[in-house]
């Protein structure tokens, strides 16, 4: 039987330091959370612009997923607020927010795809951001206890 200085185990402080300190898990979750906050804000602002009937948007005639611009504005406004709140919850470390964030990022991808005729470049940017959110939330360890 070997004894250690001070009677403490050599790795006893390591799990506590990993929980409170910066780790790969926290890094990916912070990355996903900040992208969710940014994407939610941008979706919220585009929703406000659409509701206000801003001149920023192009209307494409005979688009397969054609809705009224005000309807799209409300969809984007509500989805943006919910994504923003879930992003803050991911940053704070809530496990439920990771699962909700995945679902919301998927919904946001669908909404951005359907938003393509109105703002093509920005819809593609939001699609890429949502893809990064899904990737970061899925690759961050910790949901299965690893």
Automatic annotation (TrEMBL):
<feature type="transmembrane region" description="Helical">
    <location>
        <begin position="96"/>
        <end position="115"/>
    </location>
</feature>
<dbReference type="Pfam" id="PF23636">
    <property type="entry name" value="DUF7144"/>
</dbReference>
<keyword id="KW-0812">Transmembrane</keyword>
<feature type="domain" description="DUF7144">
    <location>
        <begin position="28"/>
        <end position="140"/>
    </location>
</feature>
<keyword id="KW-1133">Transmembrane helix</keyword>
<feature type="transmembrane region" description="Helical">
    <location>
        <begin position="72"/>
        <end position="91"/>
    </location>
</feature>
<keyword id="KW-0472">Membrane</keyword>
<feature type="transmembrane region" description="Helical">
    <location>
        <begin position="28"/>
        <end position="52"/>
    </location>
</feature>
<protein>
    <recommendedName>
        <fullName>DUF7144 domain-containing protein</fullName>
    </recommendedName>
</protein>
<dbReference type="InterPro" id="IPR055568">
    <property type="entry name" value="DUF7144"/>
</dbReference>
<feature type="transmembrane region" description="Helical">
    <location>
        <begin position="121"/>
        <end position="143"/>
    </location>
</feature>
């Amino acid at each position: 039987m070997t004894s250690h200085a001070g009677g403490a185990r050599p790795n006893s402080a390591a799990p506590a330091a990993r929980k409170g300190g910066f780790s790969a898990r926290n890094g990916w979750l912070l990355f996903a959370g900040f992208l969710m906050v940014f994407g939610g804000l941008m979706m919220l602002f585009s929703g406000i612009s659409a509701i206000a009937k801003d001149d920023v948007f192009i209307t494409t005639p005979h688009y397969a997923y054609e809705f009224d611009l005000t309807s799209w504005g409300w969809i984007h406004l509500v989805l943006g607020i919910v994504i923003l709140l879930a992003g803050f919850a991911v940053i704070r470390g809530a496990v439920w927010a990771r699962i909700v964030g995945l679902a919301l990022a998927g919904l946001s991808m669908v909404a951005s795809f359907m938003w393509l005729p109105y703002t093509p470049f920005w819809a593609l940017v939001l699609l890429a951001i949502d893809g990064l959110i899904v990737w970061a939330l899925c690759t961050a360890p910790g949901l299965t206890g690893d």
